[in-house]
From TrEMBL:
Encoding gene, per UniProt annotation: Mnd1
Keywords tagged on the record: Coiled coil
Pfam families, sorted: Mnd1
Domain Mnd1 HTH residue range list: 3-55
Matching InterPro entries: Mnd1_HTH
Entry protein name: MND1 protein
Coiled coil regions, renumbered to chain: 59-127
């Protein structure tokens, strides 16, 4: 960003150790990781590879990311509001009353009875004539 110029790899291998204290052996690896992360642009012109990074690109990338995050936030806020409204609508008619409590208690008792009956049916399943017939076949 500081020089706002275009460089070749050999130029960067000379400049980086002097100005930034990066060993010349690791310049290529670091540069490749920056290219992979999209922080440095590269292009092949003829037989040479050129590398550059301008501050305006980083600024525009941050602006795009900010706009994207703001739109996601707005969508999430709308979803939250819709879900809150849905919760409020679903609460209508489900107020805790004595009648509702009695019905819920009855429902729980009936479910427990159903489970007991299923267990009893499973217990006598081997004496079922259809099952015995299947075993004979």
């Amino acid at each position: 960003f500081a020089q706002k110029d275009v460089f070749q790899l050999k130029d960067l291998e000379k400049i980086a150790p002097k100005e930034k204290g990066i060993t010349s052996m690791s310049v290529k690896e670091i540069l490749q990781s920056l290219v992979d992360d999209g922080m440095v642009d590269t292009d092949r012109i003829g037989t040479s590879n050129y590398f550059w990074a301008f501050p305006s690109k980083a600024l525009h990338a941050r602006k795009r990311k900010l706009e994207e995050l703001e739109s996601q936030f707005a969508e999430s806020s709308q979803k939250k509001e819709a879900l809150q409204g849905s919760i409020e609508k679903s609460k209508i008619g489900r107020e805790d009353t004595a009648e509702r409590a009695a019905l819920l208690k009855e429902l729980a008792a009936l479910r427990q009875k159903k489970e007991q009956l299923k267990a009893e049916i499973d217990k006598y399943r081997e004496c079922d004539p259809d099952v015995v017939e299947e075993m004979r076949k």
